[in-house]
């Protein structure tokens, strides 16, 4: 049994990213480190683009999943647009030289400064999340002699059946505008003198493991457009933005691929007769990245519990402590093959080469557990461990909690690799404070 997926492969008992030994990267870059595969990123982008080819979507990569400038550049060069949720993300995307007509801007709390910054740069569209925000964009655009192109983000009141903390399309979530309010806004859109209504946006949360929620969402949108809007209102719905949330496999299990989503979603888009925008994040980047860490100590309690203490922590990878997320972990060098599928809580006690361990970081919090109760091959101090599927919401959610410098990021392309963000230094961490010492 060999494990090979998304350009991360075990060959002769050793992990490679594309054609490079992961060990070789870490010898140069140090640990912990995020490692991304350029060709995996591109393969995922192309897979989603080809699946939806019939409706020729504008694919706007969700920058919050991974905002490294070099990752943005790889996708921009492949023709991707970008979905940003803050002025800072917009700054990053513009720095890379992305064309503003491929940038969409979502978020419930865009400040006046952020709106002004986006209007100055003539971004393609705001995804507006409240009547108050629409009025603010109108006012600011007016004062600048600009027009604000907007899609109304609808909250369709659908349960996307994902984690409580990552669902966004239920009525009690803060996101989007309910249908009733949206209908009022569209009826009165002429009152907003500096606004061009371009369409409707729906993003339901993530990851969404079935097509059902997308279908329900688009059916509700169709019904809304047909039954609620007059001819003029309908003309305002030139675009439908179907958001992100397309799943990828965290556990090695077979999950839906873009073609499966497209099979159910494309007919509804055609029925709506709109141009389409998509905002995939996780699907493109999650499995294109791993977090590499080195074992610092092994601790076995007298009652039997084994802790593998490593040099990465919850500040580097927040998802396990934040959402109970499961990331597969496996030693970089081992003669025990990584299981093709690994489900949490699975009994593997019969395989004598495996022991039950917790893999933990050095941060002073009990929630600093990166992998809980996993059957794991024997590892020693100094051994390297890879955490898989960490390219999305990995580095972008990292912090310097416990005054830990944030990791470096490495991009691999074929048989070469380069640093695309250097590791932070202690000096970096006190910049902005030290000048205030008296
Ligand atoms: C986070 C987010 C996405 C991306 O979600 P993924 O699960 O990474 O695909 C898309 N659109 C909006 C508005 C988001 O907030």
TrEMBL record:
Do you know which InterPro entries this protein is assigned to?
Ala_racemase/Decarboxylase_C, DAP_deCOOHase_LysA, De-COase2_CS, De-COase2_N, Orn/DAP/Arg_de-COase, PLP-binding_barrel
- The top EC class, named as a word, is lyase
Entry-linked SUPFAM superfamilies: Alanine racemase C-terminal domain-like, PLP-binding barrel
- Annotated residues for binding of pyridoxal 5'-phosphate: 245, 279-282, 393
Residues that bind substrate: 282, 319, 323, 365, 393
Catalytic machinery residues: 364 (proton donor)
Q: Name what cofactor the protein needs.
A: pyridoxal 5'-phosphate
Q: Cross-referenced Gene3D superfamilies, in alphabetical order? A: Alanine racemase (3.20.20.10), Lyase, Ornithine Decarboxylase, Chain A, domain 1 (2.40.37.10)
List the pathway annotation. Amino-acid biosynthesis; L-lysine biosynthesis via DAP pathway; L-lysine from DL-2,6-diaminopimelate: step 1/1
Q: Enumerate the catalysed reactions.
A: meso-2,6-diaminopimelate + H(+) = L-lysine + CO2
Q: Which Pfam families match?
A: Orn_Arg_deC_N
What Enzyme Commission number(s) appear in the record?
4.1.1.20
- Kindly indicate whether the keyword Amino-acid biosynthesis belongs to this entry: yes
Keywords carried by this UniProt record: Amino-acid biosynthesis, Decarboxylase, Lyase, Lysine biosynthesis, Pyridoxal phosphate
Answer yes or no on keyword Amino-acid biosynthesis: yes
Family membership: Belongs to the Orn/Lys/Arg decarboxylase class-II family. LysA subfamily.
Q: In UniProt terms, what function does this protein have?
A: Specifically catalyzes the decarboxylation of meso-diaminopimelate (meso-DAP) to L-lysine.
Spell out the protein name for this chain: Diaminopimelate decarboxylase
Organism from which the protein derives: Candidatus Scalindua japonica
Please state the gene responsible for encoding this protein: lysA
